[in-house]
Amino acid sequence: MLYPPTSIDKLGFTEIKELIKAHCLSEMGRQMVDRIQVMNNYDQIRKFLSQANEFKNILENDDALPINHFFDIKSLANKARIEGVFLNEEEFYQVQASLTTVFAVIAYFNEREGLYPNLVALFEHLPIEKAILKKIDTVIDQKGKIRPNASRELQEITSGIAKAEQEARKKIDMVFKNASSNGWTADGSLTVRDGRLCIPLLAENKRKIKGFIHDESASGQTVYMEPEEVFSLNNKIRDLEFDRRREIIKILTHLTDELRPYVPLLLSYHSLLTKLDFVRAKALFAIDIEGEMPVVVNEATLKLNNARHPLLLLSFKKEQKTVVPLNVQIDEHTRVIVVSGPNAGGKSVCMKTVGLLQMMVQAGLLISASEVSVVGVFKQIFVDIGDDQSIESDLSTYSAHLSKMKNFVEQANGKTMILIDEFGTGTDPQFGGPIAEAVLESLNHKKVKGMVTTHYSNLKIFASHTEGLENASMLFNNMEMKPLYILEVGKPGSSYAFEIAQKIGLPQNVLNLAKNKISEGQKKVDTLLVDLEREKKEIFDTKLKLDKQQRQVNTLLAENEKLKSYLEENKKALIKDAKDQAKNIILNANKLVENTISEIKSSNADKEKTRTLRENLNIELQKNTVKPVAPKPLPADDEELKPGDWVKLIDSETTGQVIELIKDNVVIAIGDLRTVAKRKRVVKVSRSSVPKEMRKSFSSHTGDVASFSPEIDVRGMRTEDALSNIERLFDRALMMGYGNLKIIHGKGDGILRKMIRQYLKKYEQVDRMEDEHADRGGDGITYVYLK
């Protein structure tokens, strides 16, 4: 499967296992991590990945799994299997605690039926035998000590010990009090020597009390005596303690005999606890590396999106740096990617990321890549990274590489992934290059898939015109001479040997001498690659700039269409009003003319009368004449505008109300629309000149604002109803510009609070969420602060 076996060390997989082991709670779990292997069984890989993904979901989104104790009950079960052997109190306590954990875990998943099917499969057919726990509970208490009433005999013995101790204490207290009053005792109180309660006496007074001396002080001035009056009582206590110990052994032996038939079941429970600890550790590590479960397919293919090397990611997290993500695809069309580019440009890291993530998936581990990534299953993974020269085996660096190439060529097939770093190096480039090309051609005929890194130009040229091979390069900023760590598929990259040497400070005469020593053709190729990379970078930057501008244009066009639609609707209304007014003017003018003619006739065309009537006619006609409106002067820069003022756009008849002033821009409300105009394009108008309908519509909107309350009480609601009501409140708050919301959800089990906060996290407008002060509701109330 893996060749050579040291591949797991070269790619960092051993280090990954050590990090997972650090999350294990038990030695059994750590042993299981040590046994992690790269698999090629598709169903098994999917099962292990799904288990880790489900446990990760529990850790991030559900209540904590009740895993409190992990003990090695396998060794205890094997001990109990032997006839005549018994488990002690501590060992029974470990079995008791482990069984409590097992039954709590099973109950946890039974309450969530259907949510975690792959984890449930760990104990799906496992019988729940609580009789074991009941038997242990009758003998061992929750602190792991044997119960005083575990048997009638034990209870009587314990009671007898207590009475004898009480009587002995009374007598020794009496003797001690008498000796103290006579001044026979040394400083101190009653003490225990050899398990017997003794009186500290001054050595010169040891003959004044009858008893047995158990010990003396280092100086010999104090002796510790057990008085004769309590000697027999202490002996009785000692005998009772021996009886108690024999009774406890009898009880534990009987309990072990009762446990023996359940040994196979205990081993099954042990296996469940071990697997849970193992899967939990994998899930915790996945959270550390921001791991996801990719799409797994049963074919030799790979498509990584936003992939990051997990070890590099963890290292950069500590330094508060970010890892440049990798996007790469290996399939039937692009089988082998030949990566070139400058040293320290990220070629090896790129290849190791591909190899390590492939190993992790086939070992059932979540990977630090997007969940839309597609990862297939390879039957073999061949790796050639680093220097494997061996003094013992008489292998040079190049011999070690050739030895691997021999195995690659002989054993590779269409379901093999190859990863070769610095392909062809270690010998004379004139020969190493052609040999590497021949090996690559042979591997390509076998339809292998994978990635190689190289500086050899002949391999770049070979990849450019060979089906199944694809050139790729690590982007490099040749202006600042800095690597960008971005893989670009489709063209080879320059090694930037002279540019890097120049930046490091190699003397110019040495550089010129070196340039003269390489062929003219090679110079042109390398110069062409550098120029191509520079142009590609410029095109890439220009494309990003154009994309940004296009998005801005699309936004402006959409706003323009809305404004145009609004103006079209207003235009129809204005034309209708104008026609009605013109019709009235014409009717009034006709009446005026007719009346004037009638009066002239009635006055027999008197000159003075006719002149007066004509003047009156001209005055009335001028009243109904539409005078052209002279353009108003541009507003002075110091003319004050404030929110709430009514303004008109100078280049149109559109009227709106000022919402906000931002530098030299004015945010204007035109009906339900919002637009932004330059300060010099608007002029302030009086409120009376604004149509009543427009003022009313804005007043109704401000009325909504006045009646709006940024507080909501969702206690007692179902989660779906609570979230629906909160969403409506959130939308209105955003429209009306409120800065914060108050959500009263109560405490309870904290589930509703957790769901509400998770739901609001998806909105980018939310800045942060905080609990209310402890005196005013604490975590039963959430304050939501908006950006």
UniProtKB/TrEMBL annotation:
Domain spans labelled Smr: 712-787
Enzyme class: hydrolase
Keywords for this protein: ATP-binding, Coiled coil, DNA-binding, Endonuclease, Hydrolase, Nuclease, Nucleotide-binding, RNA-binding, rRNA-binding
Pfam families: MutS_V, Smr
Binding site for ATP: G341, P342, N343, A344, G345, G346, K347, S348
Coiled-coil intervals: 532-595
Entry annotated with the keyword Zinc: no
Database matches in PROSITE patterns: SMR (PS50828)
Keyword DNA-binding recorded: yes
Single Gene Ontology BP annotation: negative regulation of DNA recombination
Single Gene Ontology MF annotation: ATP binding
Family indicated by similarity: Belongs to the DNA mismatch repair MutS family. MutS2 subfamily.
NCBIfam families noted in UniProt: mutS2
Subunit details: Homodimer. Binds to stalled ribosomes, contacting rRNA.
Protein name: Endonuclease MutS2
The organism of origin for this protein: Mucilaginibacter frigoritolerans
